[in-house]
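name: query_chain
kind: protein
chains: 1
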Amino acid sequence: MRISVLQKQIFTAALASTLSVLSSAAHAEEIKRTGIANSTFPISLTVSVPANSRLVFVSGTLADVANADAPKGSIESYGDTQTQTTSILNKINKLLAAEGLSLADVVKANVFMVGDPKLDGKMDFAGLNAAYGQFFGTPAQPNKAVRTALQVAALPMPGGLIEIEMIAARALPAAAAHARKK
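structure:
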């Protein structure tokens, strides 16, 4: 059997195309984070999540009681904004761990804060960032999520100064993404 030059060219092109597809399938796209230039602020400006990712949505989470001796439902019982933020981020980290993820996988955070009476009714943005910066953009956990923080009129928990909801994502390996499509 004799193969013509045209058949060889067609076969070679088809083989190259197949190898290209297989090569790109072997390399899963990764989550891309764009930080603030020349800044250590613990947020990203953008986060891009590829289609082959697993998403986990964490509902709004409130702090645990920090001081059981304080009056129930008081700010003193849950602590200041920094204390409450630390409590919430530790709780979310445990929730994510149950899903096989961690705070390093968080791509989006929404923060809802009420005004702190000690700050004339203004939200304690400094307290938020003091705690938040211990969990994001650190040498141990350099990933930063995009984040929105805003002041609201009230939260569902008396004494609560802050509520946080998050979205975590992990890009699936190419083989797992391909298997999911079947």
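note: Helices lie at 5-26, 75-78, 81-98, 125-132, 174-181.
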